[in-house]
Amino acid sequence: MTHARKPSMSTAALSPEELTRYARQIGPGVLSVAGQTRLKNSAALVSRVGGMGGPAALALVMAGVGRLIIAHGGRLIAPDLNRQLLGSERTIGQPRAAHFADSLRSMNRLVTVESIDHEPTDREALELTRRVDVVLSCAPTFEERLRLNSAALAAGVPLIDAAQWGLTGTLVAVDPGRTACLRCLYPQPPEFEEMFPVIGAIAMATGAMAALEAIKILSGTGTPLFGRLWMIDGHRGLSRQLDLQRAADCPCCGPSARPAATDSRRP
Amino acid sequence: MNVRIVWAGRNYDLAASLPDELTLPESASVDDALKMLSGCLPHNRRLPGTCLIAVSGTHLGCLQSHRNQPLKDGDELLVLWPVAGG
Prior knowledge:
The complex is a heterodimer. Chain A is of the alpha/beta class.
C-alpha cells in the first residue's frame, strides 16, 4: 500500500552522492530508485529514542529518510547503556535528545535530524505528527503510546508501535481509519512497570523491525504489517502474527470518534 | 479435543509452570479454555484483563472483553500480557 504524499512535500531527486551512498539497498529485493526517492522526501517522528527508538532512528537515518524528528527527555544514566545505543559512556549525565541527535547526524549528513528534549504533550504530538509521514511509537508507557496513537489517527499518519519486556517484543502497524488502532487493542491502558526488565538485543531487534516497517511504508516497498501484531518471544524463539480486529466502539477510530483533523494525505 | 496454549508477552516467565496444551470437550469455547487456564495459575496470581486473546492467529479482544467462540481440535490459543518497555 502506497500512501499519498503531502502536497507540500518536495520531490527532490536523488543526487549522485545519494545514489552511491545507498547503492547496496537500491535494486532487486530492496528499494527501487523511486522508492529510495520517496524515502528521501519523507519525514518520520520517533518518540522516544531509547532501547527501541534509538536503533529505529539509526536505521532510518542510515537508510536515507529525508527528515527525522526525535523526542526524548531526561539525561543519560549508566543503566541506559545496556540498550540505548545512541548514548555512550562519554555522554552519561548529558541530555539525551541533543546528544542522540548529534550521534545520528554523525552517521549521515544527508539526513536532517531535529530533536525535542521532552516527551510530546497531546498538542505537541499532534503538531509533530502533522509534519511527518510516519510515527514510530517507542515509548515506555501505554499513556504515551496511546497519545501518539490519537495524534496519528487525527493527522491520518501511519503509526508503528514497538514495545518490549524482558526478552520479548511486539510490533503493531496502524493504518489510520482502516486497521485496528492501539485503543482497539487496549480499551483500558494496561499496567506499566516502571523498572521493566530489558536486554538490549531484543530492544534493538524490535526497534530495527519497526524501522523496516516505516521504510516499507515510506518507500512503498513490500507489504506493511498494517492490521497485524507481530509478537517476538526471544525467550523461547517463538514468533507469531495476529490479525487484529477493529473495535466497533473504539473511542479513537470507531464511529463515535471525533472527526479526524485536517487530512490531506489520504488517498 | 486438544488446544495448544501460547503464553506471550509478560507471561513467558510464568509459562514454565503452566500447561502448553489443554484437553477440552468437543463443544468447548474460548471462555471454557480461559476458565481452565485461570485455575492453573499459581496461588494469588491472576492475568490482567488487558491480556490480548487470539485463536489461531485471529485476535478476539482482551481478556475482560473479547468475542467468545467455539474451539476446534488443533487450535492455538494465545494469551499475550501486553508489553510496553521502551
